[in-house]
Amino acid sequence: MTEAMAQTTNWGSLKTQVSGYVGIDTIQEQIRRKALKKGFEFNVMVVGASGLGKSTLVNSLFKAKISRRVCATEEDKTPIIPKTVQIKSISHVIEEKSVKLKLTVTDTPGFGDHINNENCWLPIIEYINDQYEKYLCEEISVNRKRYIPDTRVHCCLYFIAPTGHRLKPLDIEFMSRLDKCVNIVPIIAKADTLTLEERTAFKKKIKEDLEKNGISVYPMKQHDEDEEDMVVNSNLRDKMPFAVVGSDKIYQVNGKPTLGRRTNWGLIEVENKVHCEFAHLRDMLIRTHMQDLKDVTDSAHYESFRRERLKGREKAVNGMEESRC
User: 3-state class of 281 per DSSP?
Assistant: First the structure.
């Protein structure tokens, strides 16, 4: 971190020794206290065909009943496939050790569930860009709010069916169209349906398809800030796509409550890294890279949208002025 700062800001040549205690080290605590009062926001989108366990996985990640399907009314739970892709969001405030997080989960029922899935990604792209547009309008407003509500999608979990073959054309089309506007994290759903050998071979094929089609998934190499980031993120990239198993049922294992799936041949422990890669996904999303996902959304995806929108407005204004002349 220090080396990166010295290289990018030339701070290394500005070092001056102080003769006594000043209290600069308390800045970190000041920021922490202010951030805790304000709370944090995180917006995640789940995309994939019906039956891949999207709701269950989200509940498993945050150990709470937060998915849209769990919170839906009896009328909304009717298993009718919508004629077009729908966008449905639900927000919760969850708290752990005095840290409050406003979590918004956006589901996309209807995606990939039809015979003809042509352009089924368009409502999703439109929704993501709408959130950027809302943020931009608030940001450039004359009387903007002190804290701008952040509804931008910070992460898109893309669920891949455990076929054991290669990515479907729909998978490739979706990710190639959205990788420039949102952080995509591909995951192999219901990985317990694959043997370890099948899982390894499937992951290799998926990586080949991603590279062949020029699809960038999170974390992207160009956003590694220093050697430490390169090592950590390279390790994550090697593990992707995460082969996960989700469950919101708790069993007792050696006297400890454990999330798991009971099968005829034993218990699949969701958080056991030997059984699946759920723990790697959870650690990245929540414990190590949540803030980075938000930073990349702001500095890369949103900035690209903002730049294009402002350029468009500038051209429109210049065109009007020329027409007047």
Answer: helix
**DSSP letter assigned to residue 161:** P
* Spatial CA neighbour of 188 closest among 173, 178, 176, 198: 198
Query: Given CA atoms 30, 225, 218, 132 in this order, what sign does their dihedral have?
Result: positive
User: 218-234: buried (b, 16+ CB within 10 Å) or exposed (e) per residue?
Assistant: bbeeebeeeeebeebbe
Question: What secondary structure does DSSP assign to 203-269, as a single string?
Answer: HHHHHHHHHHTT---SSPGGG--SHHHHHHHHHHHHHPSEE------EEEETTEEEEEEEETTEEEE
Cα separation, 187 vs 242, in Å, equals: 5
* DSSP assignment string, 172-202: HHHHHHHTTTS-EEEEETTGGGS-HHHHHHH
295: number of Cβ within 10 Å = 14
Whole-number CA gyration radius for the chain: 22
Average pLDDT for 17-36: 88
Measured distance CA(281)–CA(11) in Å, rounded: 36
pTM: 0.86
User: Helices 303-324 and 122-139: crossing angle, nearest 10°?
Assistant: 70
- pLDDT tens digits along 178-236: 999 999 999 999 999 999 999 999 999 999 999 999 999 999 988 888 888 899 999 99
268/274 Cα distance (integer angstroms): 10
Span 91-117, pLDDT tens digits: 999 999 889 999 999 998 878 777 677
Q: Are 257 and 234 in contact (CB under 8 A)?
A: no
